[in-house]
Design a protein that fits this description.
Elements: H1 15-27, H2 48-55, E1 63-65, E2 86-91, H3 93-96, E3 112-116, E4 124-126, H4 143-146, E5 147-148, E6 151-152, E7 165-171, H5 173-177, E8 194-195, H6 197-207, E9 216-219, H7 223-230, E10 242-243, H8 248-254, E11 258-261, H9 279-288, E12 291-294, H10 299-308, E13 312-316, E14 327-329, E15 333-335
GO molecular function, one term: arylformamidase activity
InterPro entries: KFase/CYL, KFase_sf
Protein name: Putative cyclase SCIF3.09c
């Protein structure tokens, strides 16, 4: 996959499709919902009371990470100009034995390292400056004012560093509607499978959970687990199961704080409108102000929830407070 490849090719998009996308932009826009100059979007739905509610879900003290390991063997191929992390050392154990390295008192020695990576190469949040719509960002700012060479001037990811602790709910759509793969991965949706409101509601009923205002919805498709067995292939930038455009009405009216999936792009790929490019992103990020998580590793959480039948938990999912960033890696922790 080349560095210029995307999930669509330039193509004619019908007037009906454009009309549907633009109607959704107007219908689900939250620019005035949280006050003038708001920077946090739907994360505003997470209140102190919501965090107290989430804390009461902790019964066993079990904690489960939903993060993919950051290393050179990750899913990125150079597509979308994203590469896997580069991890280097400025001082190693070998350096500590060298006569040319500064010797410290009483035999103490140190190692040091650093990492170079696209902020959206692994498990990550899409910040509200990640996507523009018709030349504007969240809140109506012009795209060239919103994000410039100095970063996101309005909704940099650092504004969320204190906020993302809430009730998390896993909907294991993969186990409900998917199949066992030849590699032995349980509950995997086929690529291109669109998750609609009817699927969300049916899964909630089966799992005996509710989802409401301020919750963080986590959707397992099983795709990452399949690709970890077969090799990453086209995982980063290729076809995937994901959220249907039709699900946006439910997402908006339910007032969830955020949504995360185990796929690279959150929404179904190929997109449901031929010729379109990420229409759910266009509606959700710059208009709805919805925080979107991608590339979450849900294997351990999915297996644990299936084993004990408990699909709700306290979720701690803070981004790195990188000033002006339009996305951030993170290590989401589900506490049950």
């Amino acid at each position: 996959m080349s560095s210029n490849e995307w999930n669509v090719t330039p193509a004619f998009i019908s007037d009906d499709a454009l009309g549907s996308i633009n109607a959704a932009i107007e219908k689900y826009r939250n620019w005035d919902r949280f006050g003038k100059g708001d920077k946090k979007g739907t994360v505003n739905y997470i209140t102190p009371e919501k965090r107290i509610e989430a804390s009461k879900l902790v019964r066993t003290g079990k904690s489960i990470s939903c993060s993919l390991h950051l290393n050179e063997n990750g899913p990125q191929t150079g597509a979308l100009r994203r590469n896997n992390p580069l991890h280097l050392f400025t001082q190693t154990g070998t350096d500590c034995t060298s006569p040319h390295v500064l010797k410290l008192p009483h035999g103490i020695a140190f190692t040091d390292d650093y990492i170079t990576m696209p902020l959206q190469a692994g498990t990550q949040w899409d910040g509200l400056g990640h996507t523009f719509s018709h030349g504007t960002g969240y809140g109506g700012t012009k795209c060239y004012e919103h994000v410039d060479a100095g970063g996101d001037r309005f909704t940099g990811i650092e504004v969320l560093q204190h906020d993302i602790v809430s009730r998390g709910v896993l909907l294991d759509i993969g186990r409900m509607y998917g199949k066992m793969t030849p590699e032995g991965v349980e509950g995997v949706l086929p690529d291109g499978w669109a998750i609609k409101e009817e699927h969300l509601l049916a899964c909630m009923a089966k799992q005996k959970v509710t989802i409401g205002k301020g919750d963080i919805l986590i959707v397992r498709t099983g795709q990452m687990e399949r690709y970890k067995k077969t090799g990453w292939g086209t995982y980063a930038g290729g076809p995937a199961a994901g959220m249907s455009f039709e699900s946006l009405d439910w997402i908006h009216r339910t007032q969830i704080a955020a949504i995360a999936t185990d796929t690279w792009g959150f929404e179904v790929i190929p997109n449901e409108f031929p010729g379109a490019c990420q229409p759910c992103h266009q509606v959700c990020i710059p208009n709805m102000g919805l925080l979107i998580g991608e590339v979450w590793d849900l294997a351990a959480l999915g297996a644990d929830c299936a084993a004990d039948g408990v699909y709700e938990f306290m979720l701690v999912a803070s981004p790195l407070p990188i000033t002006g960033a339009v996305g951030s890696p993170l290590n989401p922790i589900a506490i049950k």
